[in-house]
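Example 4.3 (complexes with small molecules)
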Amino acid sequence: MDRIRIVGGNKLNGTISISGAKNAALPLMIAALLTEETLILDNVPRLADVAQLQRILGNHGVDIMSAGKRSGDREYQGQTLHISAADIIDTTAPYELVSRMRASFWVIAPLIARMHEARVSLPGGCAIGTRPVDLLIMALEKLGADISIDGGYVVAKAPGGLRGADIAFPKVTVSGTHVALMAATLAKGTSVITNAACEPEVTDVADCLNKMGGRITGAGTPCIIVEGVDRLHGARHTVLPDRIEAGTYAMAVAMTGGEVQLSGARPELLQSALDVLCEAGATVSVNNDGIRIGRNGAGLRPVKVATAPFPGFPTDLQAQLMALMTCADGASVITETIFENRFMHVQELARFGARISLDGETATIRGIDRLRGAPVMATDLRASVSLVIAGLAAEGETMVNRVYHLDRGFERLEEKLSACGASIERIRD
Ligand code: UD1
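Answer. The structure with uridine-diphosphate-N-acetylglucosamine bound is encoded below.
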């Protein structure tokens, strides 16, 4: 398995192009199952998770054509996928495929909505907390699906099709909102989704569904109204920029010092993280091309942050912020409210000499002057990248093992960072 070797201590200076958002690209690709016409998606990031979902969709009979390079393409331009689910030949999503990526479970929504049946293995994915699917099942049941569990598979049936319903989520769930939204677009009648996730990726999917002929209002607010339609048609949609990738590089720059232009980043998608970075002593300015982030000379100030659903501080930046705070001038407190057990990076950060203590869902980080490079490994995507951030600032060499998780969510990470002066290379085994 590939490893990443970093020699820390270099400041980051230059420009980093922000890729399309993984967390929007995946549900958008899944939404293509809702129509027999072609959905064209631009700015799809080249990630292991996207490739894996292509395999899963292929198994259902979906044809995916990836467009070649065009003149005038930017260096890191995402790919254009033409996704055609003209004939769905199989409504089963098998364990071997679904167990490798949790979001692939969401195919259950378009399959039940369009084909009136689905058999989808219970999911796998990042090892963060228990991550159940009870609320996804609740949403589908409200829409009239008959659900049973059989041999590790969720079996959903709705012989007469889905019916519009009121779906009130007891807690904010991105996956639940995606599933409810996709399923409700082809249900008979109106659905009202309350306590819906307001994440920008949900809004992006709703925008695309509307381009496909869906009738959705309120996406981006806690109350989404979906008027079901008989069928959806093809459309063309550009995946929005990845706010987590942008926030990750912003944390990296705050950690090493220097100044980097995050080209294509949209500040309104990560305002809470930018506010925290300013509080910590980084300088943030917004321009036509994106966001400029820097830290010159000044030390890092400690912060107190709790993760929260959008527009709060994202759980997907919690590990990166923790890496940053290991070198702050004082004690920081980070509380994780979305996922239990999302602290696997703590013991790995300790290998750099970081001083972090855990009490339930709260971590206290006592900043030290300098981290020291170390061999490390992580088993979750965002945790892995927090180790890269630590390695960029640490004295000496860091070897990040098992980079498989990084490849799931960060497009050409080592290229983007080394172009800004980092000493980082991939070692292929
Ligand atoms: C998505 C993102 C992930 C991000 C998370 C929260 C994708 C591909 N992944 O994950 O990167 O960290 O949102 O912003 O978009 N829950 C239940 N029952 C359910 C579903 C969820 O209890 O049926 C709980 C979860 O365990 C968790 C909370 O709800 O505690 C939020 O989960 P959810 O928002 O659904 O996360 P994902 O959609 O899996």
